[in-house]
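Fill-in record for MARVEL domain-containing protein.
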Amino acid sequence: MTEVYSTTTAPNPKSSCFSVPSENLDTVCFALKVLQVLLSLVAFVLEEVVSSCLSCSALYFFEFVSCTAFLFTLLLVILLSTPLHGRVGISCWPKLDFVYTAVMGLLFLIASIVFAADNGGSKEEMTAVAFGFLATMMFFSDVGYFIKTRGLPFMSGGAPDTSNGGASAEVEKLNASE
């Protein structure tokens, strides 16, 4: 007996739900973002272990920043490393990624400095501050890597200029023969 119907579609190996590198997230950037998530989580957990505080406003600000950094960076990693980013309706992912990472790095730096200056000196607080500064370094490293590889996203299309003559020299040559 012969089979009348055969399969008409071939499996697409690129249709996996998790893909790194992708158009919005390369391998190095993915590793930096995973480190940001982990260090933010550790800073948040260590801050939560603090049993008493002399001036709690610095502790609460650090708690807010570390929790926000953990949750939103995790969300960003999930969106950028899966096809979900196409369903959200945002078309400027590089700009969003750059601005979010820079702002979160700045907030983490401020929160870590404030918490380092105004805490009770317990081991948990000092360790949380250390992880806050490590997370800050990862956010700023990500910003630096972004600028190095893609340029500033708000300037001339975002890509670093690597041409010698530029497009204007080519256009001038083409228009000169008219």
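KEY FINDING: The chain has one domain: 27-153.
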